[in-house]
TrEMBL record:
One Pfam family here: PseudoU_synth_2
The Pseudouridine synthase RsuA/RluA-like domain, residue ranges: 5-159
Record-linked PANTHER family: PSEUDOURIDINE SYNTHASE FAMILY PROTEIN-RELATED (PTHR47683), RNA-BINDING S4 DOMAIN-CONTAINING PROTEIN (PTHR47683:SF2)
Protein name as catalogued: Pseudouridine synthase
Domain of life: Bacteria
GO biological process: pseudouridine synthesis; rRNA processing
EC number: 5.4.99.-
Upper taxonomic lineage: Bacteria, Pseudomonadati, Bacteroidota, Saprospiria, Saprospirales
Protein keywords: Isomerase
Entry similarity comment: Belongs to the pseudouridine synthase RsuA family.
Gene Ontology MF annotations: catalytic activity, acting on RNA; pseudouridine synthase activity; RNA binding
Entry-linked InterPro entries: PsdUridine_s_RsuA/RluB/E/F_cat, PsdUridine_synth_cat_dom_sf, PsdUridine_synth_RsuA/RluA, PsdUridine_synth_RsuA/RluB/E/F, PsdUridine_synth_RsuA/RluB_CS, RsuA_PseudoU_synthase, TruA/RsuA/RluB/E/F_N
């Protein structure tokens, strides 16, 4: 069986699945990109998040990417309300930040990478746009995680007092999403390029 690898820029409000379980749901099938029937998402992004999503039929790659023991880095561009300082970001870097899982249990996050961006990243406008409050400034952060709990980054930034407004995954391993990509775009990766996701 030929191995196929695709990177898409998942749009905001689109589910990371092909099956439409409710008439109002927007799914990957709406992209109409003609993926082979044996190709499925590797991991996921929640509906409120955008950006890099891998689709493949390579089960070994899926296992290597998703196994917690392999701890591959994923990087996100995150717009938050307010202006976090170094001491706030250090709470993300230190590890142990407590968030609540869907099971209602508390979870202590692994150490993250976190930096403040001095300039907003070059991203296409979101549809619909983020709602801003004129009297509250916003800040862009770059956050790296080696894990992927449910809505983890949103819960982490909220836990340190800076709610997430926009969240976009732009890098897995060494593979970084090109700036020219727009919501709904797709890139067909070679097997060699797909391996950079693991590094």
């Amino acid at each position: 069986m030929a191995k196929s690898y695709y990177i898409i820029y998942k749009p905001y409000r689109m589910l990371s699945q092909f099956t439409q379980e409710h008439p109002d749901h927007i799914t990957l099938a709406h992209l109409e990109l003609g993926f082979p029937k044996d190709v499925y998402p590797v991991g996921r992004l929640d509906a409120d998040s955008e950006g890099l999503l891998l689709l493949s039929n390579d089960n070994l790659l899926k296992t290597r990417l998703l196994a917690p023991k392999n701890a591959h880095w994923r990087y996100y561009l995150v717009q938050v309300e307010g202006e976090p300082q170094e001491e706030d970001l250090e709470k993300l870097r230190a590890g142990g930040l407590s968030i609540k899982l869907p099971s209602k249990k508390r979870y202590a996050c692994l150490p993250a990478k976190a930096e403040r961006l001095e300039q907003p990243p070059a991203l296409p406008e979101r549809d619909p746009p983020v709602r801003f409050r004129a009297n509250i400034p916003t800040t862009w952060l770059r956050i790296g995680l080696r894990e992927g709990k449910n809505r983890q980054i949103r819960k982490m930034t909220a836990a340190i007092g800076f709610p997430t407004l926009r969240l976009l995954r732009h890098q897995i391993g060494q593979w970084k999403m090109p700036e020219y990509m727009q919501a709904g775009d797709c890139i067909h990766l070679t097997a060699e390029e797909a391996q950079t996701l693991l590094k």
